[in-house]
Amino acid sequence: MTMIERSAQSGFSKITQALADPAREAIVSALAGGKAMPAGELASIAGISPQSASAHLQRLVDAGVLSVLPQGRFRYYAIADDEV
Hints:
Blueprint: H1 3-19, H2 22-31, E1 37-38, H3 39-46, H4 50-62, E2 66-71, E3 74-79
């Protein structure tokens, strides 16, 4: 396996691990339409507490699945890019 193949595989693995939770899957599904949403709304959609949502959202951001868009005191989350 070449270095590029390993890098692509590890990147894919990171994304699949980030999506391997029902709450994170619900969050990503809610954002699939292209609309950015705040953490509280995503927590409600996923049926989890705001504290739990924060951890799940951070994991999705770290995996490159979501991006964060700060607006005032709120943080909006969106799908990172069209390739995701």
